[in-house]
Amino acid sequence: TIWYLYRDNLLPKQTKFVGYARTKQTIQDMREKSKTYMKVRPGEEDKFEEFWQNNMYVSGSYDKRVDFELLNQEISKNEKGLVANRIFYLAVPPTVFEDVTVNIRNACVAIKGYTRVIIEKPFGRDADSSNKLSNHLAGLFKEEQIYRIDHYLGKEMVQNLMTIRFANTIFCPSWNRENIASVLISFKEPFGTEGRGGYFDDFGILR
C-alpha cells in the first residue's frame, strides 16, 4: 500500500519510511518477503528502486527505552529540513501498546514538527481493556495526536452493506430485527495464521 501511494505521488516528496520490530532482518530481507505483493508496472522500475532507497529498518524490543533511542537516532538522520513530522503506525498486539507508546513518548517525539500515533485494531479485547488503553494514551498524547483505525472496515463488502440494504427494495423491508433471527459471519483466507496463533487466541478476527 505504501508503495502504491509513493508510486502515485500521493505522499510528500521527502517522506521516509522506517520499519521497527523485534525481527532481526535487513531492508533486503523485507524486499524479498514483499516482492510477490508489490505490483510494478512497466516503466516504474526506477521509481521502485527510489522507493526502496527511502526505506530503513531498525530491530529492537518493545519494552526497552534504549532501543527506541536508537530508533530515534535513525529517524533523526533523515530530518534535514526545518520541519520534520513523525507518524507512528502501530501494527502491534494490544499487549504491547502501553510499552511502545510510553517509549515513543519518552524517546521518539518529533522535535521539528508534529507527532501522530496510528493505532490499528483491535483496540483491547473488551470494554474494560479498551477504556484502560484510552486512559493510558490520554496521559501520553493529546487526542488530536491519536488516530484509531480498523482496516477491515475498508473491505468493499463491509463498506457497501448500507447501500445494499437501503438501495434495494427487496432487502430494505426485511433486513431488520423483526425478520432476522441470527447472523453468521464466515471469514475465509487462502493462508493460515502464519505464526500469529497466539495473537488470534486473545484478539483478532475470531474475538
Automatic annotation (TrEMBL):
GO terms for molecular function: glucose-6-phosphate dehydrogenase activity; NADP binding. Pathway: Carbohydrate degradation; pentose phosphate pathway; D-ribulose 5-phosphate from D-glucose 6-phosphate (oxidative stage): step 1/3. GO terms for biological process: glucose metabolic process; pentose-phosphate shunt, oxidative branch. It is found in: Cytoplasm, Cytosol. It is an enzyme of class 1 (oxidoreductase). Its main location: cytoplasm. It catalyses: D-glucose 6-phosphate + NADP(+) = 6-phospho-D-glucono-1,5-lactone + NADPH + H(+). Pfam families: G6PD_C (PF02781), G6PD_N (PF00479). Residues 2-160 form the Glucose-6-phosphate dehydrogenase NAD-binding domain. Keywords: Carbohydrate metabolism, Glucose metabolism, NADP, Oxidoreductase. Residues 162-207 form the Glucose-6-phosphate dehydrogenase C-terminal domain. GO terms for cellular component: cytosol. InterPro entries: G6P_DH, G6P_DH_AS, G6P_DH_C, G6P_DH_NAD-bd, NAD(P)-bd_dom_sf. Its EC number is 1.1.1.49. Cytosolic glucose-6-phosphate dehydrogenase that catalyzes the first and rate-limiting step of the oxidative branch within the pentose phosphate pathway/shunt, an alternative route to glycolysis for the dissimilation of carbohydrates and a major source of reducing power and metabolic intermediates for fatty acid and nucleic acid biosynthetic processes. Belongs to the glucose-6-phosphate dehydrogenase family. This is Glucose-6-phosphate 1-dehydrogenase. It comes from Yponomeuta multipunctellus. The lineage of its organism: Eukaryota, Metazoa, Ecdysozoa, Arthropoda, Hexapoda.
